[in-house]
Amino acid sequence: MIACTIAGSDSGGGAGIQADLKTFQELGVFGTSVITALTAQNTTGVHGIFPITASFVQAQLKAVLEDFDVKAIKTGMLFDASIIEGVVALLKEQQIPLIVDPVMIAKGGASLLEQQAVRAMKEQLLPIATVCTPNIPEAEVLTGRTIQTKQDIDQAANDLLALGVQCVVLKGGHLDGALATDSVYWNGGHFTMTTPRVQTKDTHGSGCTFSAALTAKLAKGLSMKEAMIEAKKFIHLAISTPLSIGHGHGPTNHFAYKLEEGKCEVLIHES
Fold first, then answer.
1. Phi-psi region of 194 (alpha: psi -120 to 50; beta: other; left: phi over 0)
2. Are 195 and 3 in contact (CB under 8 A)?
3. Distance between CA atoms of 27 and 212, rounded to whole angstroms?
4. 251 vs 205: CA distance, rounded Å
5. Residues 6 or more apart whose Cβ sits within 8 Å of residue 134
6. % of the chain beyond a pLDDT of 70
7. CA–CA distance, 183 with 170 (Å, rounded to integer)
8. Residue 97's Cα: distance from chain center in Å?
9. Helix, strand, or coil here: 249?
10. Nearest to 86 by CA among 57, 106, 65
11. Fewer CB in a 10 Å sphere around the end CB: N or C, the chain?
12. Mean per-residue pLDDT over the chain, rounded
């Protein structure tokens, strides 16, 4: 099976294209890639960004789609409106599951999405997306809402569904509590996925890794719910078995899933 990631390069290897390809490989999926920007980055922060032109992003994506039978595509850091528009122009006619991880801010606080690109994401990319996987701060930007309660989460998810995306996973890692709960919504349905919260600073690339795992599992033909649960297992194990490298927010452990797969249970609550 073949998957494609459209994202920025992380020279530190913990997020972006590098995290996505590692995740694809660990889950038995051949990874292709479209690079939207180069970053000078490590665990302490983003020290420089060099965006790729929208036309060359399109050229990369066109080359991949013309030659490979891609079963699922994910987007990560898209940086600006012109790149988003170029990607949408090629993907809107494709019948391929599209997972949008609306990457906006790096762990160290650097902005990875220009402000005018938020509108392009809402008006052009999300309407063609199969799944959107925002964390709480990203969902707040996309919806203009403050999210603190279960009711806030429900309303934000409904706002995102109204934009046209088929399914929303609102990740709860930024909320407080002993449990880490992700809320999954689609028109007419909702369930939550819960694992114990891991107290660690080593979560660099966790959003990229979760969405890449989801993409890989969908590429392999799992149902949406099955793919969600396996992606939740993947990221929980990646966070709970740290590599302890770097001097800042260390990367997650992409090797952990194969070694510890049977040791993670995800609590599912239907509603």
1. beta
2. no
3. 10
4. 6
5. 101, 102, 142, 160, 168, 169, 170, 171
6. 95
7. 5
8. 14
9. coil
10. 57
11. C
12. 92
